Amino acid sequence: MQIVFGIDFGTTNSALSVYRNGAVEVVAVDGTERSDDLMRSVLYFSEENEIYAGNDAIRHYVDDGAAGRFMQSIKTFLPNTSFVSTEVFGKRYTIDDLVAIILRKLKACGEEHVGCSVDSVVLGRPVLFSTDAAKDSVAQQRLEKAARKAGFKNIWFQYEPVAAALAFEDSLLPGQERVVFIGDFGGGTSDFSVIRVKGGAFDRSDRRSDVLSMGGVYVAGDKFDSQVMWDKVAYYFGRYSHYKTMGKDDWVNVPKGIIYTLCQWHRIPLLRSRKTREQIRVIKGTTDDPHAIEHLENIINDNYGFFLFQAIEKAKCDLSSMDQALIQFTERDLCISEEMSKHEFERINAENFTHISDCIDDVVARSGVLPTQIDSVFLTGGTSRIPYIQDMFVKRFGQHKLENRNAFTSVVHGLGSSVPLFV
Ligand SMILES: Nc1ncnc2c1ncn2[C@@H]1O[C@H](COP(=O)(O)OP(=O)(O)OP(=O)(O)O)[C@@H](O)[C@H]1O
Ligand SMILES: [Mg+2]
């Protein structure tokens, strides 16, 4: 009996499914506060060079007082050809080394569940890792290399929204046929597809003609968090502070590049470079806002960006069910308490929503079917919970066409359902 795993290596969360005897099951992995079926896609390297993934990473990071190096949103680096490797406490790791650590842990969970070793996997991939075709292929190659390092020998790829469509298909009754718009709104990317699906048993070996169109943007959960940081929180760290450059009397702003990097929390460690530290030291010498610059230094040195962004993410998620939320965070003498309304969240993210909205229209237009011919809209991924995103679809297709199920596991379920397409 052949057993094949499906692995959804996500920007924020990863998950695993098992395909055996013609059936797919999603398997409990590490667990997160949301679900046992997920593992946070995070790593932690302690100063003693121990490496932890998922919950262990978060626990050790907290226990060590954030002394080691914490990494999140690693998937985002896959298409980044200028990022080849990183040094952590004297050891060099390539991007595929980092991804392999997460895949290995998922593989071990799956193998424990089925009771034998498994060396075949269907991996999910976004529609676009990058708009640059060369970078896009580098990203997939790196992911494949990571899977090999984790011990997989047979590796196939499936587009994440197509996987979500197959999961949706598994819920249809025999004979039911639908044209469905799939929207998978994750942490790093929002991916779309218009696809023809059918219930019941039929030859699933080639589905290319059923995929009517696909598309995606890199605007998803992380971008919304960054935008909130930029508009609501960055001023605590010097966004509006000034300083005087050497020998001149004019006030200048703290360089935008520093604040911009600060707003993408997985990139904060880049601010530890000697050049940036020196720049901040100079700013601190003459600034009109020494408190803010001290906070800027502290967040870089003490590595607490993760917790700050958790507070921001919490407020964002609260706004999916409430009209008002509070961004609350305390660290030493920094005390952040910022009210944010749903309306304000939507206003500051207007440009991000426009990118998503344009991409949806483009994918519908390229499908060759009219919006009225789309029978259902299936939304998945954590970010699909944002009411403004739901409304985009209600406006285009009507409430009655919307289906929301298993926001966090439909992609991984569909990766398992993809196995007959490859094996
Ligand atoms: N209730 C909610 N409201 C708004 N956003 C939410 C909610 N719950 C989760 N999210 C966001 O969903 C994102 C994670 O979703 P998901 O697990 O689907 O992403 P992923 O699969 O890891 O990412 P990707 O598919 O882009 O690689 C995070 O950005 C999280 O903040
Ligand atoms: Mg995803």
List keywords for this structure.
Nucleotidyltransferase, domain 5; 2 domains; 6-stranded mixed beta sheet; 5-stranded mixed beta sheet; binds adenosine-5'-triphosphate
Overview of this protein structure:
This protein is of the alpha+beta class and 423 residues long. The chain folds into 2 domains: 4-171 and 408-422, 2-Layer Sandwich (Nucleotidyltransferase, domain 5); 174-404, 2-Layer Sandwich (Nucleotidyltransferase, domain 5), CATH 3.30.420.40. The chain has helices at residues 55-63, 95-114, 133-149, 160-169, 221-233, 256-262, 274-286, 290-302, 305-318, 342-348, 350-367, 387-397, 410-417, 419-422, and strands at 4-9, 13-20, 23-27, 39-40, 43-45, 51-53, 69-71, 85-88, 91-94, 120-125, 154-159, 177-185, 190-198, 211-217, 242-244, 251-253, 324-331, 334-341, 376-380, 402-404. Strands 1, 2, 3, 4, 10 and 11 form a 6-stranded mixed sheet that branches. Strand 15 and strand 16 (251-253) form a beta hairpin. Helix 5 (221-233) packs across helix 9 and helix 7 runs antiparallel to helix 8 (290-302). The protein starts with a strand and ends with a helix. Bound molecules: adenosine-5'-triphosphate and magnesium ion. Magnesium ion (MG) is lined by residues 8, 10, 160, 184, 186, 381, 411.
Total count of helical runs of at least 4 residues:
14
Q: How far apart are the first and last residues' alpha carbons, in Å? A: 12 Å
Annotated CATH topology of the largest domain: Nucleotidyltransferase, domain 5
The stretches of 5 or more residues where confidence is low (pLDDT under 50) are: none
